[in-house]
Amino acid sequence: MPSATTDSSAPPTQASPADQPRGRRANPWLTLIAVAFGLFMVGLDGSVVSIANPEIGRDLQASTSDLQWVTNSYLLALAAALILGGKLGDRFGRRTFYLVGVAGFTVASVAIGLAGSIEGVIAFRAVQGFFGALLMPNTLGMLRAVFPPKKFGMAVGIWAMVSSVSTALGPIVGGLLVEHVNWESVFYINAPIGIIALVFSVIVLPQSKNDAAKDEKFDIVGVLLLALGLLALVFGVVKGETWGWTSGGTLGAMAAGVVVLLVFGFYETRVAAPLLPMRLFRNRALTIGTVITALNFFVLLGVIFFVMLYLQNVRGFSPVEAGVRTLPLSLASVVASPLGAALTDRFGPRLTMPLGMALQAIACFIMLSWSADSSYTTMWPPFIALGLGVGMVMSSSSDAIVGNAPVRDGGVAGGLQATALQIGGALGTSVLVSLISSRVGSTLTGELTSAGVPAAAATGLEEAKDAVAMGVAPVSGEMPAQLKGAVIEGSHQAFMNGVHTSVLVAGVLCVVGAVVAVAGVRRASGQPVT
Q1: Which domain holds residue 119?
Q2: Under 8 Å CB-to-CB from 187, ≥6 apart: which residues?
Q3: Is there a single domain that holds both residue 139 and residue 65?
Q4: Are the CB atoms for 64 and 116 separated by under 8 Å?
Q5: In this predicted model, what pLDDT tens digit does every residue of 312-330 receive, in sequence order?
Q6: CB 95 within 8 A of CB 151
Q7: 43 and 142, same structural domain?
Q8: Which residues form the Major facilitator superfamily (MFS) profile domain (predicted)?
Q9: What's the chain's average pLDDT?
């Protein structure tokens, strides 16, 4: 926690007095506004694409596998390069690589809309992910460099609020654009945001970097090992849902990723100028903050994914209507992020991290009461609890990671935080959806029979379990009305069985996370990392 543990080894910008920023470049709040534009663009893009995917598939004649790669190519490139992006910023200038990231992300977004083929969309999504990896970690790195320790927690709270709000607004903005313009506009919207971010950032952002590293040899081997390890691990995670978690391909990819990452960790302890200094993990708050960040987005993105399936495919709401109904979540996160930062400043992450995890656990356990026809009065309370929990954990865990790293490693710490976030989100979506699929497969026939579907017909509908796992009832226009109603009832009940299994697992993990945070994080975040 910054208020209890500071890096006294260097002044915030590590520059000589003559190089210290003056005027508007000396105002840390203008720096916060500038990085918020880039952060908002990336957060919005991350959640609008899921709304655009069906229309992309229809327009470009893309297969389901193709559409998965629209998301996966971005995720893989992002995860593989986040720590590299932070390291480049620390060494050569965080302002420089933030601006390169914003410019590249904006151009790649426009190129996606102009691509005209699914192959082009997938390729430019990977390019977009790479530039996003240059942008994201340097937002936190710059804040760490310009804000004094006593104000850094509040800055991170506002940072977390912008991230949460942009992610939550994605389904609403994406739904409006897809319904009233076209799917390309989902990407074109980044152009005006990116231009504003570039112009404003050029005017107000100060340069900050680790001047002590300018003569160090760059860790090329570490870059390659980390990229290969993360690529293999995340690839195994995102393919686990379709290949099966016990398949040779999934286990092989994940095992290869873990082995390469272990080799990377060993190598980093032997090199003079490591890409990711292992000494950072001596700080218990930083280490636990990394784990809790991953768990936070495991729950958030996993739950949001099946909540959108529930609202659209089971309840029949349009994307915009579904997005509006989840507004309590985004509004709660707006309140929780600065509140969590203020509480962290005063009481430390030992309070706010477990409190946020507990709120998410409560949200998950309330969702156990949901049925296929639940009223909205049973939906908004867990949305609020989830939003409060996510916002509180995001601000406190980000503060624990970046605030406990030395200023000179601010970009690397930001990359570590963003990498944990991405891997947690990928795991959450894949694992929780897989749990739904497994539960649907084991209960579909029984639920169809209980709803009045003849046994022979129920057995025949087992082949539609993948559709049912997405909340879609396998009905056709030729079915008699009574049979159609029974199939819808049974299918939706099987889907809800899967949802209940997923939220139970997510809730238990949140309880475990709360216990780990209480037991592992002290009031003072530990000894300074030097």
Answers
A1: 23-209
A2: 45, 109, 110, 112, 113
A3: yes
A4: no
A5: 888 888 777 887 888 888 7
A6: no
A7: yes
A8: 31-525
A9: 82
